[in-house]
Amino acid sequence: MWSTLPFDILAKVFSFLSPDSLACARSACRQWHTCARTYPSTLPQHHQSWFLALPTRNRGQCCYVHNPVVDNWHMLSLDFLPDPIRPVASIGTLILVRPTNCTILQLALCNPFTRQFKYLPMLNITRTNPAVGVVILEPGQPGPNPHFRVYVAGGMSEASRGGATYEATLEMYDSMDDAWHIMGFMPVEFAVRLTVWTPNESVYSDGVLYWMTSARAYSVMGFHLGSNTWRELSVPMADRLEFAALLWRNGRLTLVGGTCGEDACIWELRKGDSWGLIEKVPIELGIKFLGGKRSWGTTKCGATEGAICLYREFGSGMVVWREIEEKVRWEWFWVEGCHFIRDKQVQNLQIKGVFLYPNLAPSCLLS
Question: Domain F-box spans what residues (predicted)?
Answer without folding.
Answer: 1-34
